Amino acid sequence: MWDIVPPFDLRSNAGQVQVISVVxxxxxxxxxxxxxxxxxxxxxxTKRIVFSTASDSTQLExxxxxxxxxxxxxxxVSFFANASALLPSxxxxxxxxxxxxxxxFRGGKGSLTVIISPEATVLFAxxxxxxxxxxxxxxxxxxxxxxxxxxxxxxxILAGNAAVDPSDR
Length: 169
Hints:
This protein is of the alpha+beta class. It has helices at about 40-50, 55-60, 70-85, 145-160, and strands at about 1-5, 10, 15-20, 25, 90-95, 100-105, 110-115, 120-125, 130-135. It is globular and about 45 Å long. It starts with a strand and ends in an 11-residue tail after the last helix. Helix 1 (about 40-50) packs antiparallel against helix 3 (about 70-85). It has one domain (about 1-169). It contains four helices and nine strands, in the order E-E-E-E-H-H-H-E-E-E-E-E-H.
């Protein structure tokens, strides 16, 4: 099932207008939050991702780290639509030299770094000098339930409500 998020009117600094008429995101399940609970920053982050999408492969080849491929941008928009209510804050986002979308968050007791590619999402949570790594393959988590479960655990750790087990790294 899919939900439709209202259209975004995205204006660049150059005055160009790019309108995304419909953004389609997976339907939230009963164990997650509803659309009405999206954080205020989701629209801003979605806009940044869309404006960082390369219009052709030449941009990707000649300016690595500056542009995202459409596949990576789509994966990023989907990630934030599924996970934004469980994330600790508005992220600092950028493209890696390999073309992945990187999102960095600060939590109360640590930090979270997320690397998004079309194939997988990798989450690194760091608190009290301990880093835990979680790799979620998109093919195995099509509905986003494992992502949301993992983010709930990370959110508790970053809030100081749970201990990190070093053997779980």
